[in-house]
Amino acid sequence: MSKKTKKKLDENFDTEESKEEAKEEAEVEEASDNKDKAEAEDTYKEAEDTSQETEETSEEDNEEASEDSKDKKSSKKDKKNKAQEIIDELNDKVMRQMAEFENFRKRSDKEKTQMYDMGAKSILEKILPVVDNFERGLDAAADGDSFADGMKMIYKQLMTSLEEAGVKEIEAEGEEFNPDYHNAVMHVEDEELGENVVVEVLQKGYMYNDTVLRHAMVKVAN
Length: 222
What we know:
alpha+beta, 2 domains, 3-stranded mixed β-sheet
């Protein structure tokens, strides 16, 4: 029996009947209190369980959120890597195309230069016989002839123009014979001269830039 119940029994009652009634009331009240206490404990336990479930749910949500965050970061990283791969591939293609274009430009410039040189050589080779005849005519002209003097001025102008175009006479007379520039058509024996020395130029030779336009026709001693 609780202290509260005992207290109620100790109160001043005149009869045993009153005491019995009071005892029953006290027991009912005690039972009611016990019931309330049990209900309170159940409520507390439910609240405690609910709190624990809430915490567990919160932890699960946090774990799921963390996993989602990791997945998003991984997906973002994969997209970034893929984009970088595409950029690198495009850069490589651009560099290759630029290199191919540069090689094409160099080949085109070289071909143009070669074609120009071939055309120029072809024309100059046709002009050289005219120059030869011009020189023969001037050599045969009499001194003091005003017409011949005029022709000499024209010849000088012609040779200046050819020189500006890249045409240059090959040095031959007095030089050592060189088959790259000279074409020997005659040989003479002369002890006063050295071996393989060009003693006379029968036809002038010319260079066009760094190539032989026409070999010099020469006479070689010894």
